[in-house]
Design brief:
The complex is a heterodimer of chains A (509) and B (120). With 509 residues, chain A is an alpha/beta fold. Chain A has a 5-stranded parallel beta sheet with strand order 11-14-17-10-18. By secondary structure, chain B is an alpha+beta fold. Chain B starts with a helix and ends with a strand. Classes of the chains: A alpha/beta (509), B alpha+beta (120).
Amino acid sequence: MSTARTWAVALTGVDGHMVEVEADFTAQTPEFRIIGLPDKALGEAVQRVRNASSNAGLDVPRRRLTVNLSPASLPKHGSGFDLSIAVATAAAGGALPAEAIRSTVHIGELGLDGRLRPVPGVLPSVYAAARAGFGRVVVPHANAAEAALVPDIEVRAAASLAEVAAMHGAEVEVPDVDAVEMPVSTPADADRLDLADVIGQDEAVDALVTAAAGGHHLMLSGPPGAGKTMLARRLPGILPLLREEEALEVAAIRSLAGEPITHLDPVVPFVAPHHSASPAALVGGGTRVARPGAIVRAHRGVLFLDETPEFQRVALDALRQPLESGRIEVHRAGFTASYPARFQLVLAMNPCPCGNYGVRGAECTCPPMAIRRYAGRLSGPLRDRIDIDLQVARVAASRATSGEASELTSALARARVVAAREAAAERLRGTPWRVNGEVPGERLRVGALRLPAKVRAPLDRALERGTVTLRAYDRVLRVAWTIADLAGATTPGIDELGRALFLKKGLLA
Amino acid sequence: MAAKDELGRAGEERATQHLRSRGYAILDRNWRCEQGEIDIVAFRDDRLCIVEVKTRRSELYGHPFDAIDERKRRRLWRLAFAWAAAHPDAARRREIRLEAIGLVGADASTARLEHLVDIL
């Protein structure tokens, strides 16, 4: 009877920190204490570990047991430490060899019957373990597929504590239990949303492809029924597929949000929070444990805000930090968590509260003041980050009923987007940026990428007249470069610039 | 005498023999005062040992040591000082230590014995 150690993982945000779990028996009357800043759920591990151990046939000596979670100053939360505490306890009590668990990471919650239950955040935890150089991790059966996504680490799945103990060489009977399963979610049907379904909106489809190719933030404005949502939902289908490490990042965030992960999804995520969402729902929050919000779940994907002016102003302004830095920091009294949040923003709005302003054949019933107030809900700083401002009109009846399908499918559009992005990446080689939407304005105005005066002329004139701000000027240049990339041109010509100006006209008016 | 009290007495007897065999000098047994009772007071290595003996027929209702909780420990300390106050000559300049002996088995003479030295 002595001290035994094993390892577990504490998560703050998506970052995993290795935690050494030490169990030590001293010759005093029975007591079971967990120290090292556990939260309530982790403190209750005392009961779960005690009952699960006795039901697994592992004798817990009647002595004082102290479990220390080191580093002791790092706050730890959740029930994922149960398994590591149980095996460290068993090893300290002599039921299994201490050497066997010394360099293995254990993750999982225990049921009173000794079965292993799945926990959220297994993917980032296993990822952290692999990065820290651990060679073996034991996870609950239901998390096995998720853990197996991480390369360079051996994943052992177990259904019960007895199975884990036997794995490490304890002489216990392994009961034949039904493993606890995770509820299976039906996969999203994003694949079935094809760009070819959009008919009679060639302008809008073109703008959508441009936005995808340059990573430009996009605003769709138009009357109800014009197809704004339909367009936005098809954006993930034309964005390039995620590379493996990007897909891992996305899956890690989904795992933190408690979703079951069975495979890596290469299609970018699409998150569309309802307009009643609070700032905490968008950013993420919680009092002790930070949960990722909608902005974080849209990392590497598309964040779609339908009916944007209906969102609370503070909620919208919460987007400004991640749009600027690609990360979001959640600060609470007890902790600070930092999440990646690099997403493509798609806003959709009606032209006025009733939706009919400027629509031919319809009558707008809104007073002028209401229209101004409606448009004013979007703060200037947020509008400034929108590169493409697209007016979507209702489809004319003749085109809608003509029965002809658009020939541009999502697969074709994606191929164009990938080719354009490759051209941009080639040009931006050696810089921190990958797509045109990220390039700062002065890079396009001065230096090697400066356009000849003849091409710039219409834009310069607009700037002189004051119809575009300098920031809008930069945006037009960026979009012009993307249009040139899509067209296979080496630099934007006067046509590309004109088209970019057209896509920005929302701010010109 | 009830069966459980008989088992308790037999357990204390066995504990006393165990302590003697380990070189303890037994000073007092079943010492009573207003605050309760001390099972065994013994003396070893210049230390005054206050020993609590718990005997259980089986572990069905928990291990004997489970019955020695924080409250029980605090009472044992009070009793220890009460004994020391009542026997100033024997206790003078001696460190006091709480010990516990747990026995599990229907027959005290063959029961499994566990001895905790210094339970704080």
